Amino acid sequence: MLTVTRLDADDARKMLAGATEKARDIGVPMCIAITDEGGNLIAFERMDG
């Protein structure tokens, strides 16, 4: 049996924060999307620049 752990909003925000920090470190503004296993959007952030 396969067990799937799903992301919740708090996990998605943590992932966005980490990705945003890395993008700032390398100096590349990005659009960051966090999706579930079906490709449905959970969280999105567009950096300025």
UniProtKB/TrEMBL annotation:
InterPro entries xrefs: PduO/GlcC-like, PduO/GlcC-like_sf
A Pfam family this chain is assigned to: HbpS-like
Signal peptide span: none
Name by which UniProt lists this protein: Heme-binding protein
Species the sequence originates in: marine sediment metagenome
